[in-house]
């Protein structure tokens, strides 16, 4: 039911109460008097936890990131911790990224925890998100919080919660925490901290994290001193970790893009600090061509996603997608485990429902289990927690994230960057390359090609458009894709999979999520999914065919690209 403007104004008026600080009251009053459209956007709903926690535009209002919305989250989380661990001395870790106000908001979050009698370990400066995941376990904390909006535009910030295992919150904790938050009024927030409960952390945790990253990401590859790498932090937190981890692993030819090395929430040299976007790595690619580097690595602001560019068979730098780096890293780890006689059948690799089906193909070939979850690394972390009797080798998702082993329970661009360099160095030393090793994967397991189409729909009207698009896909299901017959539809909202060829339905054992996946009789896959953290709807396409020879790669890839383009045009997503 749509909220009325009168109800929105009533919500906003509550923010002119004396409980709120003078700046907040004045900003709300200005919106009430002269900017009704912005008032509606700021108060028409409450920010909610999505696949990556809470993320939104900074500003005043219930639909914005500010000291009160984050304070209410933290108060609810404090109440939940006390109920879950009665009588225990509670401990939390807090990190933050390079975004505007992240340091201030992190301090406020720390103060609310401390006001509730909870011990806080607060990083003294910005740090990568994977280091926060590591710190939760390293410091024996009950939970952790990181202030970040990942690769979103500069006006965004966010709040991600991690549990005792170092993974993000999952059912049932997420819903129980949300209920605690929803039961609160803003006036229930305790802001008056006990200063002695806040302890600043930095070098000691850094040292442990660097050591663990090198241990998990290194295979003592040959040729490290011959691999030339261009690295860009895209103005984010990875500058605090990746150059040092690569140095400790023995890489001497690491060339940093200095113009993008200083953390800056404005991200002045890029349109978007997202390594999924080729434009974001333009400066690094230019530098790579200048010095004839072998590889480019770029990370997002909180250093959980990494983009990789390598030279193809013609010597041209190309940006790989998340599926490509994921399958090659996984193949490399599987080979390593096999070489060391560690594959006993009790291991697993993992990915997500919108990522490449090639992961399942490789798992079968190596005799390990393949586990698949909803979008987001919290589900992979949950697999590790739910199956302690099995060994986790590695896993990732199409959105440029990878996790090596289980010492970090979230996507980790620090360790994954090192692993990528190890693969490239080892390949170069043996007369091959990162790219050629990828082609060998395609020759063995089939050529899988993916494409992502992301459509941004902002604000109230945008949310309504996205909702209607999913309704249309459900009520008027697609019957064919690029001339191929749709034979199976999986609706993760209802939990029902429909076998159209045999007229059967089956219940899927997976948490509900607003995702639809279509499969054709030729092995093509198309998924539609509204983003949980951005005003976007995403369409994921996957096609595949056999590759009889690496020599035929370009022609075979062109045919698959043509099929992908046909589907995009068919659905009018251009």
From TrEMBL:
Lineage, opening ranks: Bacteria, Pseudomonadati, Bacteroidota, Flavobacteriia, Flavobacteriales
Which keywords does the record carry?
Isomerase, Magnesium, Metal-binding, Phosphoprotein
Q: Which InterPro entries match?
A: A-D-PHexomutase_a/b/a-I, A-D-PHexomutase_a/b/a-I/II/III, A-D-PHexomutase_a/b/a-II, A-D-PHexomutase_a/b/a-III, A-D-PHexomutase_C_sf, A-D-PHexomutase_CS, Alpha-D-phosphohexomutase_SF
Species name: Robertkochia marina
Instruction: Give the domain of life.
Output: Bacteria
| Protein's UniProt name | Phospho-sugar mutase
SUPFAM superfamilies, per this entry? Answer: Phosphoglucomutase, C-terminal domain (SSF55957), Phosphoglucomutase, first 3 domains (SSF53738)
Q: Which cofactor(s) does the record list?
A: Mg(2+)
GO biological processes: carbohydrate metabolic process; purine ribonucleoside salvage
- Keyword Cytoplasm among UniProt keywords: no
